[in-house]
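Example 3.2
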Amino acid sequence: MPGLEAGISVTVGVVALLVAGLLHFVGGRVWPRITVLLIVVGMMSIVGTPVGQLLRRWAGTADGWLSGVLTSWLGTAVTGLIGLTVAIIVGLDVWKKHIGTRTLGCAAALPVAGATIPGPAGAVVMGVCGALAGVVGGGGQWMFGG
């Protein structure tokens, strides 16, 4: 991603995270599903930056450690458990309309931890995250006449 486009992407992501924080902490927790959406979109824009690379490396290290522990206990490899757990928590909490601070934390971790999920499940999780970012980005572009 060229420098200008990356800078714009990160700026939009930070604005999305700020708006989500304001909606949750100052706005009396209005529109909780929109707040989750804004957090996922905000983190998706940060994943492509050097900070995102560091976060992905940490998530990969944690997933590798957990996989190693579970492999020694169970005798079989279990990868992507952190990302899968985060995805399930976000999905169930949004579906059941039980959105709290745990959901928002998991929504922030989803674009980073979701990349550790192998196979089609990981492709679906990251595809949904990318689609959400595309819809919000397209809406923002439309609003500003782009």
